[in-house]
């Protein structure tokens, strides 16, 4: 029941954050927007842990992996996603993000030696075919450079997200709770963003209106503090590959909202593309009940 609650919460929260991200695209530079988000999130989470007496400092041995998690999950990936939102609808970004299942499978093999089964290769093929159909009218027919940029940035952001998953998995195995890792990770991530702002001499623009502020609060408190905590708790409880299957339902939520708020129009090719993308993820998900049954039989034997 706990895993189901964590799973559903992550899907609902992260399936809606893409709209809030799109609402922040405008006069405030991307670097500053991402800094605002994680700076506020760090203040909320660190403050809550400090008040409750649960704030712990990672050991020197744990610090390097906390930094990797910080740069991957709370800095580099979101810089890519925010920039991508300027080129393609936010719902389509979430479809690319759903391929985190494949990224995690490959990276888990590289960093932890987890096997990659034929189901993963089939899922990847279905996902790529689905994305070609979804982005085809913009990329292959109209050949719009901006669409290519959005796809490339989304894919790069998803890769950073996967690296963050690997770091979080290692941190949990080393005894560092997701809440503690997030608190320090968001702090380090916001400091890294502040450093980039200074180096690039990016102008610090104040939040322009109530819409931006509302989106910022939602992204910081709900999308970051709650969303990343529920997701990384899933990673620590059921593993990085299984937890990534929460992204299967992100496009359904995000594209539905995008059709209302961003004038995204569903076409037969788009519907088929989304179906193939979800089918690819479903293929990967279908193996886990079988795996659990097999393990149960082994224990009985």
Element layout with pairings:
Elements: H1 2-14, H2 17-23, H3 30-52, H4 63-84, H5 90-97, H6 100-112, H7 118-141, H8 145-173, H9 178-200, H10 210-238, H11 240-243, H12 250-261, H13 268-285, H14 287-300
Describe the structure.
It is built from 14 helices and no strands. The chain has helices at residues 2-14, 17-23, 30-52, 63-84, 90-97, 100-112, 118-141, 145-173, 178-200, 210-238, 240-243, 250-261, 268-285, 287-300. Helix 5 packs across helix 8. Residues 288-301 have low confidence and may be disordered.
Biggest β-sheet description: none
**Mean pLDDT reading:** 84
Quaternary state, please?
Answer: single chain
**Count of β-strands:** 0
Structural class: mainly alpha
What percentage of amino acids are in beta strands?
A: under 5%
Q: How many helical elements?
A: 14
Topology as H/E string?
HHHHHHHHHHHHHH
Beginning-to-end CA distance, first to last residue = 27 Å
Radius of gyration: 19 Å
Helix content: over 70%
The low-pLDDT segments are 288-301
What keywords describe this structure?
single chain; mainly alpha; 301 residues
Offer a concise description of the structure:
The protein is mainly α and 301 residues long. The protein has 14 helices and no strands.
